[in-house]
Specification:
Layout (H helix, E strand, L loop, with lengths): L1 H6 L7 H11 L5 H23 L9 H47 L9 H24 L1 H4 L2 H44 L9 H24 L17 H9 L14 H9 L7 H6 L3 H22 L20 H16 L11 H19 L6 H49 L8
Helix pairs in contact: 2-3, 3-4, 4-5, 4-12, 4-13, 5-12, 5-15, 7-8, 7-10, 7-12, 7-15, 8-14, 10-12, 14-15
Family: Belongs to the ROH1 family.
Main location: membrane
Subcellular location: Membrane
Length: 442
């Protein structure tokens, strides 16, 4: 904008130069140059008005006055540029958030059928959620002046309310992980009974393995029933840490962070509560919130999907996958998220998964290996033939791989679920404090 810069140094001795610039800018077409042209017109009009008010001999004595006109126009231009830069930075931040969410779900949807819903995939999902949560938190604090307005204030309240409901889901998932850990211990008993390092497998070893496998089958069956009927104690991640006074203070910040859930509590109903009234913002809401409505909708959808995927994968009370995701296709992350939703639903409809207590790949492998081992143990006759002993050792080896995957994956998974729980609590508490609220406002 060299030409615009030069306008600040025009003198009254250059009226014809100004007229020449005015004529030249009449031919400009682009948006940016149109803005420059309007500035030139404004300078020219100011110059004409100033000339008409001056006496005929005033050209030579009014250099300071004309310089003032040029400087005032330049000052206004700089203010406009600063305003445009600030608005542009805000838009860039919101667009970047949408793009990052889309990239993360594209990455998750790239998983093959064998990796989908495995412990490693669920951990990856939780990692992506934590990243989205942090980026969203930064957006809220960078736009605190907008969040404080009534239009965005309602959206913030709804989001924090959904977050609180997600905490109970985290507790239920943690309890489901504990249940898988119990199955892991039973698998260890079977592996110890049928130790592949021994030269031969005796009848006593098979009896010990058979008893453990029977316990595992009963536990798996009970867990399937508990999906709709049985409730159990569901300790909060934060309930065992700190003094009673500290625990009481923390409970004040998260109403439904109770250490247990009621007998009527259902993961399916909780998911429906999280997704209740979750719809894409209208154009007037987007304008009123300066685009923040889209960010709230995006993060709420991510929260709902992650909680739904956890309930689908991990055994928990009142499991159910009938949650409707209403996401307009124009959102960049809609396609990969809806694709994952469809793939998980298709997985749940498979014959071998239809009555499963959880879609987690490792849970499926536990059920599968337990079934094969039971069939083998029931049909075995002594003394063992070489073929039967070879088959038994192969089954034990497969069971050992499943045991190893569960043992190595459960602890990191539980830590991540705990981190999600605490991050949600911390973000909500920070939000309530930063935007001048108390828990009594809920």
């Amino acid at each position: 904008m060299f030409i615009v810069h030069r306008l600040g140094f025009l003198t009254p001795s250059s009226p014809f130069r100004l007229l020449s610039l005015r004529t030249h800018f009449l031919s400009l077409k682009t948006e940016e140059l149109t803005q420059v042209r309007s500035i030139v017109f404004e300078v020219f009009d100011s110059f004409e008005l100033h000339r008409l008010r001056m006496p005929a001999t005033g050209w030579e004595g009014s250099s300071a006055s004309f310089n003032y006109i040029g400087r005032s126009i330049l000052s206004r231009r700089r203010e406009q540029v600063y305003s445009m830069d600030a608005a542009g930075s805000h838009d860039v931040e919101l667009d970047a958030f949408q793009k990052k969410v889309a990239e993360r779900f594209l990455n998750l949807s790239a998983a093959g059928n064998d990796d989908l819903l495995s412990i490693s995939w669920v951990r990856k999902l939780l990692d992506e959620f934590l990243c989205c949560q942090e980026e969203f938190r930064v957006i809220l604090f960078n736009n605190s002046s907008i969040v404080g307005k009534s239009s965005a204030d309602r959206l913030m309240e709804e989001f924090f309310e959904r977050s609180v409901k997600a905490l109970d889901v985290c507790n239920a998932i943690r309890d489901g992980i504990q249940q898988i850990r119990q199955w892991q211990k039973i698998l260890e008993i079977v592996l110890c009974a049928l130790d592949n390092n021994q030269r031969s497998l005796s009848e006593g070893q098979f009896r010990r393995a058979q008893k453990a496998l029977m316990d595992l089958a009963i536990s798996l069956l009970d867990e399937k029933d508990s999906g709709t009927a049985v409730a159990r104690r569901n300790r909060s991640f934060g309930s065992n840490n700190g003094s009673p006074k500290e625990r009481h203070r923390r409970s004040d910040h998260s109403r439904s962070l109770s250490w247990s859930v009621s007998r009527s509590w259902s993961a399916a109903k909780q998911l429906q509560a999280i997704g209740n009234n979750l719809t894409a913002p209208r154009a007037n809401e987007i304008v009123a919130t300066n685009g923040l409505a889209m960010a709230f909708f995006t993060m709420s959808s991510v929260l709902l999907f992650v909680m739904w995927a956890l309930v689908a994968a991990i055994p928990c009370q009142g499991r159910g996958l009938h949650v409707h995701f209403s996401i307009p296709r124009q959102y960049m992350w809609a396609a990969p998220m809806l694709s994952l939703h469809e793939r998980i639903l298709e997985e749940s409809k498979k014959r071998e998964r239809r009555n499963s207590c959880g879609l987690l790949e490792e849970v499926h492998q536990i059920e599968r290996c337990a079934r094969f081992m039971n069939e083998m143990v029931d049909s075995v006759q002594f003394p063992l033939t070489e073929e039967k002993e070879r088959e038994a050792r192969q089954r034990v080896q497969e069971l050992g791989l499943v045991f190893k995957a569960v043992k190595e994956g459960l602890d990191p998974l539980e830590r991540q679920v705990r981190e999600v729980f605490h991050r949600i609590v911390r973000s909500r508490t920070e939000g309530l404090c930063s935007f001048g609220r108390t828990d009594h406002d809920d």
